[in-house]
Automatic annotation (TrEMBL):
Metal-binding in keyword set: no
Record keywords: Chromosome partition
Gene3D superfamilies per UniProt: Fe-S cluster assembly (FSCA)
Domain MIP18 family-like: 51-104
Name used for this protein in its record: MIP18 family-like domain-containing protein
Family: Belongs to the MIP18 family.
Pfam families per UniProt: FeS_assembly_P
Example GO biological process: chromosome segregation
Domain of life: Eukaryota
Amino acid sequence: MPAEIFNPNPVVFSPTKSLGRKSELLAHSLWIDEPTSSDDEVEDLELIDQDEIFDLIRSIYDPEHPNTLEELRVVSAPQIRIEQNRITVEFTPTVPHCGMSTLIGEPLHPCSHQSEHAVNKQLNDKERVAAALENPVLLDTVEQCLRDAGRRGLPIM
């Protein structure tokens, strides 16, 4: 947990019901270059949709609170766009001045932060991100946020 709390009293919502696709997600590789035995199989592949991506990230914990990003409505399925080989996930911090945005935004992009441009610039700087993850305190915080990521798609209890 960070020393400074940016939003001491966030609104917490009930998680939505899982789509129950966990077994389907784990049964198929998400890698495009996986060898296939025929062209017919390639045509039969089902594309990943925004609900499946949401099921993968919904259980990530907020670095500031013992709640998931879904429970705090930081992420939702409509904030996910899939275009060819690129998935964009925008997130809404619980407060416009959230100091945890760069940490939450490691794989995401904020859409309603008062410093949205600056945060996205930091997140797109690979050297800066790599250096940040060498910091044991930040790395521990990231690991705590992902502690239940294996529960993807399952309801949070």
